[in-house]
Records
---
Amino acid sequence: MKILVAVDFSPVGREVAHAGYRLAKKLGSGITFFHCAPQTARFLQGYDIKAFVSSASRDDQKKIGEMARHKLHKVMEDVFAENGVSESLDIEEEVAFGDPGDELLNYAKEKGVDLIVVGYKSYSAIEQLLVGSTAAKVARYAPCSVLIYRPNKC
């Protein structure tokens, strides 16, 4: 079994990482901690952006990716410190760029994921209204089962 855990660095996202890992340990399944970083040239989607994207913005994107990998790794370290490291589990980490819902769905399809674990909300209600709910999109279109994590303090 393969579990994909969406980590967005919000307080709920961190709880999702812990809950997803505890579930993977109980089931003895592989787990991928997944974060989707923002694209610096996202507003140019649909255009031939190669002509518009400078080397500086490519460097910025690379820095964002490095920061995201570092933060994701830190979340994983916190999860392992609290829950113990299971040597028997296949544990991976993945950072993608783009729309979080789309990237989660694409990764799940490509890798044959059996379960996606997402948080019920991100940073703010305004962000959810403007961007749309990642959890709702994943639940609607996922090629596998989806667990929407809700913390006790909703």
---
Amino acid sequence: MSDHQDPAQLYQRVASDVRLGRDVRLAAFINLYGCTIGDESRIGTFVEIQRGAQIGRRCKIQSHTFICEGVEIGDEVFVGHGVVFTNDRLPRATTATGALQDTTDWVCERTVVHRRASIGSGATILCGLTIGEESVIGAGAVVTRDVAPRVVVAGNPARVLRDEITLD
């Protein structure tokens, strides 16, 4: 280790195809490849962000979170600890013939999280959904449907608990 190397960098896997914005802060023990992370965002410990995922500006992605291919997170979004996104409606290990699946054997479903949304710790976000601007997803929720802007949802499956919240 050189005298100028940040020790945290020893425990990061940031592929050369990752696009990092200005003043992005990365914790140790992360895995980033083929993704884009906007200016001033913070990525916590034990986070994986896959190829093609996009993280906006001034986001906070807390520890132990998994953001897969096909996920687009807008500006100023909070993603709590241990949040999991999915991108395949019918995941299978093998094809009908028994061969291991590869990238040509499935369809990546896009998920969009709009500006200033907040996703609580332990939530699971199924694929192909839209999370509305300034909405709040409760801790541990399983989101199976689109979430409207400025509502609070929680539970399994997630249901609206409160309409039209106002932030700030």
---
Amino acid sequence: MPEAAAIDPRLLRTALGRFATGVTIVTCIDAEGRFIGLTANSFNSLSLAPPLVLWSLREASPNLAAFADAKRFAVNVLAEAQVDLSRRFATPTEDRFAEGAWARGAQGAPVLAGCAAVFECETVSQQPAGDHRLFIGRVLAFSESSLPPLVFQGGHYHLLGEVL
């Protein structure tokens, strides 16, 4: 095992990529009332009582200020059929919200129709952690469907298969 100071970030990223994750689009409304969103796979459940989730965003992200100032955010867990939206929200695009069925959720943040799940949250904590900022949110509302989620692993999207 390499010492922490000797760890190559590229090799670490490859090793971390062995862990399969779901794919989300995290959204908020900025101070001017614009929809802000980005693809993230750094989403996790944190607590059931109280209902808390967490996700992280690079400190260098151009969207950091909007999320840092937002009181509420939504985590849209993408379904397999939404892979194109995942790609769209992962790259610089003039109007990311021009595609997909978007609406303001009950808590104010943009929510996407046809997702595997949606979590509408209020930000309860944010803190720097290395080159990222951790956001912890209290779940205020959620919905889920039986649609299979989109999965990301090893730098590629994957579909779920049946375990025999």
